[in-house]
Amino acid sequence: MNTRLIxxxxxxxxxxPKKLLQQYHLAGEVDLQPTPEGLLIKPVSKTRRQxxxxxxxxxxxxxxxxxxxxxxxxxxxxFEETEWQW
Length: 86
Hints:
Shape: elongated
CATH architecture: Ribbon
Oligomer: single chain
Largest sheet: 2 strands, antiparallel
Strand content: 15-25%
CATH topology: Pemi-like Protein 1, Chain: D
């Protein structure tokens, strides 16, 4: 399949047909990898909450206690006394 380079601001780009985007699950962010044969375009597969465990471990190493800070100042007593109905 041939296509043309088009001007996009100070850069250049290509228009990919919708059918190819769907076939290869390309949307939003893509990964570009130069190869000896040309340019490989791959979908970016990010897992949900990727990197959260490392960030949590760094916070703990720095002496932070997220559990305590998370609920600090939170109280549901007023809700239970005024709004909750059995």
